[in-house]
From TrEMBL:
GO molecular function, one term: 3-oxoacyl-[acyl-carrier-protein] reductase (NADPH) activity
Protein name: 3-oxoacyl-ACP reductase
Domain of life (superkingdom): Bacteria
Annotated PROSITE patterns: ADH_SHORT (PS00061)
A Pfam short name: adh_short_C2
EC id: 1.1.1.100
Matching InterPro entries: KR_dom (IPR057326), NAD(P)-bd_dom_sf (IPR036291), Sc_DH/Rdtase_CS (IPR020904), SDR_fam (IPR002347)
Residue ranges of every copy of the Ketoreductase domain listed in the record: 220-401
Keywords from the named record: Oxidoreductase
Family per similarity comment: Belongs to the short-chain dehydrogenases/reductases (SDR) family.
SUPFAM superfamilies registered for this protein in UniProt: NAD(P)-binding Rossmann-fold domains
UniProt enzyme class: oxidoreductase
Length: 459
């Protein structure tokens, strides 16, 4: 499950040889570790106005040194001008919520471009802008949508583990709303290592930032399905690290490893096939009786039964739909109908880039994973009245036993087909889920966050 190539070309002679031969040059990504500084260098804040002031105040309060490129028509100094002496920039933050016409993009984007050569390895470029809407004047809509095109292209130009992502604000959401600052912190940190070319949409000002940013889930009870191994086990460990009490769910056949995971995270194990008609009641009952509450549900359990559609049989098709989406729908229905599923609950479902872009041999799987996206959008609307959220993460190529089974040549190509030129780790998916499960993301609902290193498939 390890990517030996990335380890080889990350340093020393391996790096030189790869460079000379023009081979892909993935680097070890900056990943979150407790106590690390938020960024590997100061932040360059491009833009002016109240939102820029709000972000500057937040960054400073997080211990980040902020350099301002205040006036939007003043370009940042070229990296070549100040030479190698100036320290590398940890992040470039572009405040674009005031733009009105496509022409307004020129000065801030060019200023960012001039600063790109000074960006540190695993640095960040982050845009803050307003979500385009059909109500916008056409020029305004063009400017706002333009940000998305520019950011996604810029992200593809970054090197050395740097990523580019954006935060989209609904019309009445201020730049200092909890979920805007929560998103900013997540995207700057090593928690978002494999999130690239993505946008988080903040729809409301709900939520609050955690008192302790290292334990954003303190006091919460979380259920994780498919927790016995790989991505599910990483989710259980990450939610527990962030302060949650975890109920680890998996099929009885995986009982031994399930208990190991549950013990490791000081949580409890629930042996349960999620396709059972009473799975929702069992989950709720276990959580309430053992831990007194239920705040977070992570639908991670999933299976593949790949075949070209021409060779697909009903058993393969139906089992994938049943585990990956029908069971989740039933569990959500029963939780939402109960009193015990608290107000302000967070549901996070694991989708897949196959559900967005499609994948040969995976019509059943893609139908189920696209179904997950449809489900979280509708569920988000239902949970809104109770202050809850429903979101999905869509992993791309993640280094697990599932992807280790792909034949070598195909696997080697698949893991390089993204801007970071490597596969992600289960931990990367878990970090995105932990963020979306936190109250610092309570203003984000109905989103699909890809954790795919900006895979070439789909958006
Ligand atoms: P995995 O097969 O290693 O683990 C899945 C877990 O779900 C297993 O422990 C399994 O026992 C459990 N499970 C399956 N059916 C169940 C049922 N009916 N009831 C309870 N538990 C059940 O898979 P993984 O690679 O860790 O993937 C986890 C999730 O991420 C899945 O939903 C998968 O589709 C998705 N995903 C994975 C990748 C990847 O690259 N590995 C990419 C995109 C999406």
């Amino acid at each position: 499950m390890t990517d030996k190539y990335t380890a080889l070309v990350s340093r020393g002679w391996g790096r030189d040889v790869a460079k000379r031969l023009g081979l892909p040059q993935p680097v070890e990504l900056r990943r979150y570790s407790s106590g690390d500084p938020l960024l590997p260098g100061p932040a360059l804040l491009i833009g002016s106005g109240p939102s820029a002031g709000m972000l500057e105040a937040a960054l400073s309060s997080w211990g980040v040194e902020v350099r301002r490129e205040g006036a939007p028509n003043v370009a940042a100094p070229r990296a070549a001008d100040d030479g190698a002496r100036s320290p590398k920039i940890g992040a470039i933050v572009l405040v674009l919520d005031g733009i009105e016409r496509p022409e307004d993009l020129s000065a801030p984007l060019l200023a960012a471009g001039h600063a790109l050569r000074s960006l540190a390895p695993s640095g960040r470029v982050i845009t803050l802008s307003r979500r385009a809407s059909t109500q916008d004047e056409p020029a305004l809509g063009a400017a706002r949508q333009g940000v998305e095109g520019a950011l996604r292209s810029l992200a593809r130009e970054l090197r050395a583990g740097a990523t580019g992502n954006g935060i989209l604000l609904a019309e009445d959401v201020r730049a200092d709303a909890p979920s805007v600052l929560g998103s900013l912190r997540f995207l700057l940190s090593g928690r978002s290592a494999f999130v690239d070319g993505q946008f988080l949409t903040v729809g409301t000002s709900a939520g609050e930032l955690p008192a302790d940013p290292e334990r954003p889930l303190d006091g919460k009870v979380a259920v994780v399905t498919g927790a016995a191994r790989n991505i599910g086990a990483a989710i259980a460990k990450t939610l527990a690290r962030d302060g949650a009490k975890v109920v680890a769910v998996d099929v009885p056949a995986a009982g031994e490893s399930l208990v190991q995971v549950a013990n490791e995270v000081h949580g409890t194990a629930l042996q349960l096939d999620i396709t059972r008609p009473d799975a929702g009641e069992q989950i709720l009952q276990h959580s309430l009786s053992r831990h007194g509450r239920l705040d977070i549900v992570v639908h991670n359990a999933g299976i593949t039964r790949d075949k070209l559609l021409a060779n697909m049989d009903a058993a393969k098709w139906d089992s994938v739909i049943e585990v990956n989406i029908a069971a989740q729908l039933r569990i959500n229905d029963s939780l939402l109908a109960s009193e015990g599923f608290g107000d302000g609950a967070h549901i996070v479902s694991v989708s897949s880039t196959s559900g967005i872009a499609g994948n040969r041999g995976q019509t059943n799987y893609a139908a189920s994973k696209a179904g997950v996206i449809g489900m979280v959008r509708s569920t988000a609307a239902r949970l809104a009245a109770r202050g809850g959220t429903a979101n999905a993460v869509a992993p791309g190529f993640i280094e697990t036993e599932m992807t280790a089974r792909i034949p070598f040549a195909m696997r080697e190509v698949a893991r390089r087909l993204n801007s970071l030129q490597q596969g992600g780790r289960p931990q990367d998916v878990a970090e995105a889920i932990a963020f979306l499960a936190s109250d610092g993301a309570a203003g984000i609902s109905g989103n699909v966050l890809r954790v795919c290193g900006q895979n070439w498939m789909g958006q």
